[in-house]
Amino acid sequence: MDDSGKKTIMAIGGHIGDMELTTGGVLATLALQGHKIVTVAMTAGEKGNPAHQTIADYRGQKIREAQGFAEMLGGSAVVFDTPDGELLDSEDNKFALADLIRGVKPNVLLTHWKNSMHKDHEATHRIVRDAQFYAALPGFVRALPAHFAAGPWYAENWEDPIGFRPYRYVKVSEEGFALWERAISLHWFTVHSTSFAYKDYYTHLMHVRGIEARKTMAQAFDCDELARKVIAEGF
Predict the structure, then answer these.
(1) DSSP alpha helices (H): ranges in the chain?
(2) Whole-Å CA distances, 74 to 90, 99, 103, 134
(3) What are phi and psi of 208, to 5 degrees?
(4) Is the confidence at residue 2, as pLDDT, over 70?
(5) What gap in Å lies between CA 73 and CA 218, rounded to an integer?
């Protein structure tokens, strides 16, 4: 956290669009409060290309979409070079992400839940967990000094539902939702997909989680079992 009390939030997804959908309302809300937003995609997600585009062309488009979304939130986007569907739970990827964490110095990490229908989501979950560990320990000597980022908090994703339990509800403001609604529309698949109504689903989910949280809108996150503890002096 900097001297102004503002935080840097790093949201790490398996593909471009994952974190923008699942955490985007919260990211937009925090951005409007002056916090710094960094989105990271371990792959571009280019193999979901529409019929009228090549994989290579769609990759370029998706990178532009990621950059556009982040810029609308006053933040930045990082996209790794790994091809879609080929993300490995490797030490090289873990240390590459750890180096990025040390460079950006986020206060909080957001990423995928551990169980998913997508192998890239599951690999990202494991990569983030180990990268957080590598980034935090000075004993792993790298080009940059060690940095600890809290979390990870795991985003709610329709593709990652098994075992996910909403634990932390984070408010999405009306202004944050309006910013998210404009920014997410930059992502072609969120409004044009014929297989799933992405934008509609996450819009409604924000309202449902908001009702549960006694707010207008919210997004829900899970955490590791060992983090599920409340420490108090009494009852």
Answers:
(1) 18-22, 24-32, 55-72, 91-104, 119-136, 174-184, 188-192, 198-212
(2) 32, 22, 18, 28
(3) -60, -50
(4) no
(5) 18
Q: Residue 230 has what pLDDT?
A: 80
Structure tokens at 222: 């899970």
Distance CA 147, CA 56 (A): 35
Amino acid identity of residue 50, one-letter, is P
Nearest to 108 by CA among 67, 165, 148: 148
Q: Could you tell me the domains of the chain?
A: 8-227 (3.40.50.10320)
Indicate the SS3 state at residue 47: helix
Measure the CA–CA gap between 113 and 121, rounded to whole angstroms.
8
Token pair of 81 as six digits: 């070079």
User: Would you call the peptide bond into 106 cis, given omega within 30 degrees of 0 as the criterion?
Assistant: no
Got the DSSP string for 93-111? Answer: HHHHHHHHHHHH--SEEEE
> pLDDT tens, 105-129?
999 999 999 999 999 999 999 999 9
pTM beyond cutoff 0.90: yes
